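Troubleshooting: if your tokenizer reports a length mismatch, compare your output against this known-good record of 667 residues.
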Amino acid sequence: MTEPAAPRVPDAARRVPDAVRRRRRRVVCVVASVALQVPLLVTLLSVPSADKDPVESAAADERRLQDVFTAAAAEYGVPRSVLMAVSYQQSRWDSHRGAPSVVGGYGPMHLVDVPYAQGMLPGAGTLAGPQTSTHKGNSRGTRSAQPADLQRAARLIGAPVEQLRTDPAANVRGGAALLAAIQRELGKPLSSDPADWWEAVARFPGMGDTVSANTYAHDVFTVIRRGAHRTTDAGQHITLPASPDVRTHPHNPPRPKDIECPPELSCSWLRAPYVEIGDGEYGNYDPADRPNDQKIEYIVIHDTEGPLPSMFKTVENPYEVSWHYSIRSSDGHVTQHVRTKDAARHSGSQYINARSIGIEHEGVLTQPETWYTEQMYQASARLVRYLAEKYDIPLDRQHIFGHDNVPSPMGVTIPHMHDDPGPFWDWRHYFDLLGAPLRGKAGRDSDMVMMLPDYTTHKPLFTGCKTGGVPCAPHGSSAVRLHTEPRDDAPLIQDPGRRPGGDPSTEDVNDLGSRVSAGQIFAVAGRRGDWTAIWYQGRKAWFKNPKVRPTAVATTGRMVTPKDGLSEIPVYGRALPEPEAYPDDVPVKAESPLPYSLLAGQRYVTQGHVAGSYVDKSGSDGTFRVVKGDEEFYEIQFGHRLAYVRASDVDVVDSPGAAGAPSRPRR
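Known-good structure output:
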């Protein structure tokens, strides 16, 4: 399973040097960064009168948002629960500081400024993109994609277009007016019964097909029935009370043929090619018979670092890399490229490729407001939930992880491993959508902690989103930064694998050397005041963890530690079989320990247990066979990335409250 050293196009191909990759990312980011400049200009041109402080005025508007929903619903005859649930489904009530999404959607109602989107975001995935109309294999019904039009909403409420972009209150009023207008166009009354608004809700976002539209309405009415409460990105506490008695429509769309996708998602095919490309090499994936020949252990979350149409060109090129699914930012449409029984080349590690499914998300990690839409989160979670159930994959952060968590197969490859989907991917929300919420399970003094910062309010400093060394705009983050000592001015943890020359870690948005992420679990190495230390890459690493707004919660589970008498044990980026397991005609793959130390007395959390295996691709027909060994390994959260240790080198330690015995290794 040799991965070609191709130029980087999607995230999956990121094996180019950091400097080159960074230049390419800056080019890709032009599309999104331009989009962010217009709202700023609009804000500057729309300064309030001199007797009003603009910051205080904006804050006052934000504080009134709960009341704005009530007033707008009454003004336009829309049930408040419908208006609030649509807004929650569109944006989770966030305004994103007036920044547009990839389709030019603004504000809590995600109203789309269509002319702006067409002029400023060329090449991005669109609501009526090619995969819903031209790709073969799409059995879904299609419908006219007319999104929630911001300019129409502005006309309906008699307000300037610019105001609906930047003022959340005007944006909500515009959304209410649009819902009422759609209801009238359907020939329906402005009823006080939410159930009467199903069809209007389905039409509101302008989904490109009827299945997606009905799924959207179903999700909105689920919010109405269950209720919702959250703190927005502006710091507001907003509540929608539950209405469990509200009726919903049947939601049983037909399952598409030949597509491995949950029936409630709109999915299509754009196949990656499998052809001989010369010298006995085949591209661009590896035929297999998973899970019969190799268990599928992991699902890897990527982002594309560019618009989806350009990624489609990559996955159709047999000389390039591949992945199993792409998810469009604008509406969450799913395109499958490789059958899950086959191994795609997406992670930078042949070992992980052989036992994982790769999912690319249209996006740029430095522009989360633009690309990481709620529609994409929702569709991705549905797909992952479906795949995890199909292949018995645990819903935890050692089995559902980002490309930035993939273990490097060897020490020399560590500096070239990738960093997406980045610190702004909302893992906490994502696992809520998966139905596996990230939660603590023990008292505060437990010897294990799960990283769990509050995404909305946790805004660590990052640099380099637009220009190297320049601070990024403050933004909610899943990342927690680590220090050598329990104080804010202490040096960051230095990663000897990422920077073997001893250069220090930085606050750059792409620098993974000194940070961990939401949902990852570590063994506690010490506590001092508001600071907690964890074992991280062979040393103590400190992070601020105050009692008020903690960045980690206590939990339970299993840890491994070197056996008595062993002062240090090797750490690996892949779990290979013992030499005796290889057939005579298959060369033994040499082990390559990572350049870290795991010393006596240290502990690392394990949530997985595997047997060594290796995929041999030496056959002339392009097929491969799996060499399985008896050597057992534990998968551990060793740093920001995963790693493996031999079971024979460690003892398993149960944290108080952990139930059951370690499971047998999976093959």
